[in-house]
Specification:
8-stranded parallel β-sheet; alpha/beta; TIM Barrel; 253 residues
Length: 253
């Protein structure tokens, strides 16, 4: 056993109103039972963050945002800062999701700044990395992961590395119904850990590395039973409380 506490995060993307968030959490919190050995994080849209924090206040569930700006304030229309997230009780933030990289041109340089700010402000960054289908087919998976890890964690001190959560999300498996095989996922995650060891070997063993990409109840146990896979960042299947609960249960050590 790795000794790392499993973490399962629900990335709701642009889904759920405030009322839908409250209904989901009212059901889910009442059903989680004996999942104290699994950390659960809900990542709702900005408009539902306050409602999620309030609903989760007396539960073990933590709330994270789906993105943030690196500046504390300024003329950045439509953006939200770390201070604003902390003000509503948010404890973490997803950074560098492939949809942010693809649709909003988020760069590794910008992510390096965001990761540093999140750590400085006490937010747990969930940093997403992963290759496209073309990159995997060209045999470039390791080169892409190496570039992303080196660039996105540039400037992170060794003593802070263990506070970062990394989600390996092969782009070709996000929202496509395709899933990396457990062997493919574990191989990529082991490579990511080897890259982290180049920063600090001890911290690399403490970092939790999740798998994301069409995770669902039917494949969760096989994926999450792997030694190197420390949990999951779940998209579509996290919108249904029963499906998400089943995935969380599959993560129990």
């Amino acid at each position: 056993m790795s000794g790392r506490t499993p973490l399962v995060a629900a990335n709701w993307k642009m889904h759920k109103t405030v009322g839908e968030t409250e209904d989901f959490l009212d059901r889910f919190i009442g059903e989680i039972g004996d999942l104290e050995d699994v950390e659960i994080v809900i990542c709702p849209p900005y408009t539902s963050l306050s409602a999620a924090v309030e609903r989760c206040r007396r539960s073990p569930i933590r709330v994270a945002a789906q993105n943030m700006h690196e500046a504390e304030q300024g003329a950045y229309t439509g953006e939200v800062s770390a201070g604003m997230l902390l003000d509503v009780g948010v404890q973490g933030v997803v950074l560098g999701h492939s949809e942010r990289r693809q649709y909003f041109n988020e760069t590794d340089e910008a992510l390096a700044r965001k990761v540093a700010v999140a750590l400085e402000r006490g937010l747990e960054p969930i940093l997403c990395v992963g290759e496209s289908e073309a990159e995997r087919d060209a045999g470039e998976t390791e080169a892409v992961l190496r570039r992303q890890i080196e660039a996105d964690l540039d400037g992170v001190a060794a003593e802070d590395l263990a506070r970062v959560v990394i989600a390996y999300e092969p782009i070709w498996a996000i929202g496509t119904g395709r899933t990396a095989t457990p062997e493919q996922a574990e191989e990529a995650i082991a490579f990511i850990r080897s890259q982290l060891a180049g920063i600090d070997a001890e911290a690399a063993e403490a970092v939790r590395i999740l798998y994301g990409g069409s995770v669902k109840p039917a494949n969760a146990a096989e994926l999450l039973g792997r030694e190197q896979i420390d949990g999951a960042l779940v998209g579509g299947a996290s919108l249904d409380s029963a499906d998400f609960l089943a995935i969380c249960e599959a993560a129990k050590p």
